[in-house]
TrEMBL record:
This is RUS1 protein. It is found in: Membrane. Its main location: membrane. InterPro entries: RUS_fam, UVB_sens_RUS_dom. GO terms for cellular component: membrane. Belongs to the RUS1 family. The keyword Cell division does not apply. Residues 2-65 form the Protein root UVB sensitive/RUS domain. Keywords: Membrane, Transmembrane, Transmembrane helix.
Length: 65
């Protein structure tokens, strides 16, 4: 608790701090997941993981985007 909560918690923060922190943490998790999925989709679109894809084709596709 000393690592995750502000010093003097709960007296040192507003009453809605815990609820705010839960929503903020959930937002950060969703943002991280969305970024990971977006990166994966872009890499698949340029041919990463496809045995038939060429390096030149992947590079051209990446540059065109």
């Amino acid at each position: 608790q000393r690592v995750l909560l502000p010093q003097g918690y709960p007296e040192s923060v507003s009453p809605d701090y815990a609820r705010y922190q839960c929503w903020d943490s959930l937002q950060a998790l969703c943002s991280t997941l969305a970024g990971s999925l977006s990166t994966r989709a872009v890499l698949e679109a340029v041919g990463v993981g496809d045995g038939a894809a060429t390096v030149t084709g992947a590079t051209l596709t990446w540059l065109l985007r």
